[in-house]
Amino acid sequence: MDKLGYGNQPYIVLKHSDIKREHLHIISLRIDETGRKINDSYEVARSMKICKELEDEFNLVPLKKGERQEEIPIRKIDYKAGDIKHQVGNITKAVMNHFYFQSFGEYRTILEQFNITAEEIKGKHNGILYSVTDDKGNKTGRPFKSSLFGKETGYEALQKHYEQSKLAVGKKNIREQLRPVIAQTMRQANNINDFRLLLKKKSIGVIFRQNEAGRIYGVTFIDYPNRAVLNGSRLGKEFSANVFNELFNSMQKQNVTLKQTGKRQPDINPDSVLGSVFGLLDIPQLSGSDYEEDVFIREQEYEAKRRRLKAKKKGRRI
User: Fold this and answer.
1) Strand order in the sheet with 204-210
2) So what's the pLDDT on residue 79?
3) Least enclosed by CB within 10 Å: which of 89, 126, 226, 282?
4) Cβ contacts of 296 within 8 Å, gap of 6 or more
């Protein structure tokens, strides 16, 4: 402060600790006691020189080029810390800077892990509204327009991010890395919670969206090592919500039978219920509007086959 000419000026020091990188802000006055403006010529260059001298004097670790960026968010919104707007801005910017996602739904899913949700506003002027939520996903407080945080978390920025993420995910073969890991975990798990835990040990998060009846209608995977957020159907039909719904239903039936009789049900297992879904891994994946129809047809074919086998066992034909 002395070397910059502010040694005799009043000042306030503010400490920010709401993100992993704690830092200080120093606020002072540019006008001295005589009413004259303090010289601010080449202030940036002078400041950098002074910082270098301090690094040498106190043996500090210098900041390398490119290191001054938003930290990856590591915790949810903290109401007690206050300044909610600032926290929302930090988290949304960090997610944009550090995660790949190819749709608004995938973006919203990763935000929800930090107790933030987002809403698209479309019309004459497209925009994004961000809201803070509680642990149950209920909105609390007033929403924040994306413009409050700058253009980098707005509607246009998101559209560009989707395309960039698509190229990055393809270039890094992220889907190809995830699919066998998830498929193996589907074989190993005994129930939905077991599935989550096994994936967590592999640094992969999974979020299931379920209706009031418990039916799974959406699934999203978060590959933390690769920082990628992918809906299950983006990995392939064998990782869609319908497939997981059938898989966990069959596991539940198996567990009930095992508890009641001490024996596993011979006619039901994950592979048979899914129509040997893991064998699809080497088949080119389809996408588009025919996807749900294709799943429905497979389910009907399996059900017809099951009925024929059941009838055959009873010695009659259908």
Assistant:
1) 204-210, 216-223, 228-231
2) 80
3) 282
4) none
> What predicted TM-score, i.e. pTM, was given to this entire model?
0.61
What angle separates helix 104-112 from helix 84-98, to the nearest 10 degrees? Answer: 130
Structural domain of 191: 174-313
Q: Dihedral through CA 95, CA 100, CA 105, CA 108, nearest 10?
A: -10
My answer on whether 215 and 296 are in the same domain is yes
Question: How far apart are the C-alpha atoms of 294 and 280, rounded to whole Å?
Answer: 13
Q: Is residue 121 part of a domain?
A: yes
Residue 115 lies in a domain: yes
DSSP symbols for 95-147: HHHH-B-SSHHHHHHHHHTTTEEEEEE-SSS-EEEEEEE-TTS-EEEEEEEGG
Among 127, 153, 171, the domain-final residue is: 171
126-150 per-position pLDDT tens digit: 999 999 998 888 998 899 999 999 8
